[in-house]
Known about the structure:
It is a single chain. By secondary structure, the chain is an alpha+beta fold. Among the domains are: 135-239, Chitinase A, domain 3 (Roll), CATH 3.10.50; 243-346, Roll (Chitinase A, domain 3), CATH 3.10.50; 527-625, Roll (Chitinase A, domain 3).
Amino acid sequence: MKTSLRCLLMGCMALACTPKITADSQLTTSPPEDPYLISIDGIPVPAEEFLYVLSKNSAPSEENKLVSSAEFEENFQLFINYKLKVTEAEKLGYHESEEFIEEFGSFREDIRKPFLLENEVQEGELQKAYSRLKEVVKASHILLSFPPNANLDDSLTVLRMANKIQAEASEGMDFSQLALTHSQDPSVETNRGNLGYFTAMQMVYPFEAATYNLQVGEVSKPILTDYGYHIIKLEDRRPNPGEIRVSHLLVRTSPDDEMSEDRAKRKVVDIYEQLLKENSTWEEIVGTFSEDPGTRQSGGLLPWFGVGSIVPEFEQAAFALQEIGEISNPVKTPFGYHIIRLEEVKPVAPYEELEQTLKSRILRDSRSTLIKSQVTAMQKAKYDAQENDSIFHLLAETFQQENNLAPESLKGKWEQRELWDKWVLRIGTDTLRVVDFWQYIIEESSSVKANKKTDLESWKDGFIVTQLNEAEERDLFKNNKDYRLLVQEFRDGILLFNLMNDLVWQKAINDSVGQRTYYEEHLDRYYWQERVPSLVVKITQPQNEEISKLRGYLQNKEYEKGLEKVLQETFLERFPLLFTLEDRLVETTENPIFQDLDLSKNFHEKMVNGIRYFILTGDKLPEGSKEFEETRGKVIQDYQTYLDETLINKLKEKYSIKINEGEKNRIYHLAVN
């Protein structure tokens, strides 16, 4: 296992968890129940943190690999150094800065999503949607809409009528006739209630859910949607054929011209017969005769489509085609007559490919509201939440009596009625009071992204959801080790990065005086070995006549500046891939190409790892110190290391460190033995 500070930068947990967690607060924990591994200034650090660091420091294929004693001790010392720096960052208030709060809050939002109940419910809806997507269903329906400005009595009247029609349909009465008689769907005159085939995500969710839960021939109970009550009959269900791509030729008809129907029919038949001839070309005939200007020049090609996304007559004919290149008989639709050719077919994509698309669509339709409602119900049950309905009712009365009083003015009104300290919500052992509810309203109403709410019920719902979410996160942090460690990994990693950036990395880059002082105090580190000015020609082609000419040219030359340009003009203009070249000072002891060269000669030819080099060398330069500007980059690196070591030594003097040898020995045996 390789040890590195990089893994430690992101490898530790936060120190605590407050009773209330908000978007801009940081997590803190009470002392762990398990024995501590180390403590820094009395703050205990459990062994799970260090074990997490060890696992993060292993390659995925070596996750369970044991470490050596030396590796264990090296990692342990690095871990102590890391915790010292995190402690120092907290002492300096880095965790209270707006920059940290915003960055950590954003990270935590992403980190916690996979652990939440909402993710579990959402995943269930995704799987359900994909399962339905693998089938297409054919259904008929009868729609009973609500009258304008309907009241409760109107709604009940519509429901009673829907129940009556449903009973008649279930007893065997002709469903299409019932639809013609009762349905208020504008399309019923043409489709007699038949909606054709469709699949998941194409109808409003309550309608989709009810349809997929029916057996073929079964009639549903009245289903409420935003359009009214629906009575649904499932006509058929079958596997989803996926998507197809077709091209088409269109001959239009005009409803205002009685003769256009007959003309179009004769024309499309003639075109169809021409297409059946062996020497016919689809693209040519479409370009000549099709009356669809949008596709005529592209051979009539249409976008991919699936069941339920195009006019039924066209869809039925298109999906009936079996062979690529097969053409249909003329098909009549409201647009005119079509001849369709099958171009491509693809089945329903695997779940992994559709997951993000499905998630995006689910979060935009009514399923998102359903998911939130399910999550809230699960949270209430899990965390034993109780609402004080009587107090909420009194608060709502005050709100309404004062004509939706501004949130800032509610405090006095609620205090006057002695409501201020009454409890409104209990979650487990935590009790939230009217004062907490009021504070929530104030914070939300002042938020830039807050909607202007005009009734107390909206504030109440938001307050309950917020408190339940906070309870869930506290529960996660307390009881889910993976989540707790992951949160702390990011929290402490951000703190450490900011501290190191200020006190080590950027400081070393910006401190020109410190760089110069460090350079002067460590001149022995910045020293040139024996060097020689060299023109190195790397041959990139096999031995040939041009390489022989190049060799002969160089054998009679002495090293001089400017020879690089001469070689380029002499050889590379005609043969640009013949060689590459480099003119520079070379430390001979550090470069394998120069080892064993007789530097009393000017020209050298050498093979290294199967590559041929021609080398011209000049007069040797003696050993000597590097100028500051020649080695400034290396000085900065060394200065950063010096500042880091100085910081660690300072922190070891500043903070008391206590090691629990018994606990260290226990995890030593876990990691090493």
